Amino acid sequence: MNIDKAKLADLLYDAQDHLNNAIRLLDMYVRETGDSSAEAYIVDHLRIMAGRDHGFLAGDLNIDDLIEALNEYEEEDDEAEDPAAN
Known about the structure:
It contains 3 helices and no strands. By secondary structure, the protein is mainly alpha-helical.
């Protein structure tokens, strides 16, 4: 891997923060306009992508899944580097 895993995790957390900020801004737009299409087709989809805390029954890949996969990948690397762990 060309970039260190801590930096990758930071990228994911930053992306998640940006998505959550976009959701907040779009929520304000929806409240002001009553645009239920924007809520259903944009805001709700962004909520699902941003993380697991969305309240929908969805199995879509989200940023929390990517963070978890990165952490699992780190654990596998640590075990591969430490022969005493096997």
